[in-house]
Amino acid sequence: MSVGAISRVVGSLVVGLAVIGSGCSIRRVAVNKVGDALAGSGATFASDDDPELVKAAVPFSLKLMESLLNENPRHQGLLLAAASGFTEYSYAFVQEDADEVEDKDLAAAEELRGRARRLYLRARSYGLRGLEVRHKGFEKALRAGPKQAVRVATVKDVPLLYWTALSWRAPSRSPRTTPI
After folding, report:
1. What is the rounded CA–CA span in Å between residue 126 and residue 132?
2. Percent helix, strand, coil in the chain (nearest 5)?
3. Phi-psi region of 137 (alpha: psi -120 to 50; beta: other; left: phi over 0)
4. What is the signed CA dihedral for 114, 118, 120, 122, rounded to 10 degrees?
């Protein structure tokens, strides 16, 4: 994460935490501001040259997103960031670890694959929530008839559609993983 991005997130957190207790509408504004800053931080992780640092930092970021989504469950930026973040983390750091350890410890690999599957489910849930915010009844329509359901989608929906589909499909790339 760049120094500027860290400063923006930390600054937003400080301001947000300072005003949270002073009223409901101010609290909502603070949550939205912090959410906006956090939702835009994904590119910073992607451009970092220290994957171990990213691996250690991403869970905190994901849990912070979830905390903010508890306050504002319809925040579009956070829903997209959570869908993409959980998908990317699951693939890059959990499923890949499972693949690497499989020859040495099959039980550990299976445990990691189970964790990856749960993280993909979380990602899919956030993606579907984001699509549901934009198109009421979308998830039900998608399960009933995907081709018909996506007809309501617009160009703005493409990122959520992408991460939702990827998180839905990712676990089945391994023959040992049960489709979700």
Report:
1. 10
2. 85, 0, 15
3. left
4. -170
CATH number, domain with residue 79: 1.25.40.920
120 neighbors 167 (Cβ within 8 angstroms): yes
Q: Are 77 and 65 members of one domain?
A: no
Q: Tell me: do 54 and 113 sit in the same domain.
A: no
DSSP 8-state assignment for residue 178: P
Q: What is the per-residue pLDDT across 128-173, written as a single tens digit (0 to 9) for each?
A: 999 999 999 999 999 999 999 999 999 999 999 999 999 998 876 5
Instruction: State the residue for tokens 């993983």.
Output: 177
**Tokens 């198109």 belong to residue:** 135
Rg (CA), the chain: 18
Q: Model pTM? A: 0.79
Q: Compute the distance between CA of residue 71 and CA of residue 1 in angstroms, rounded to an integer.
A: 25
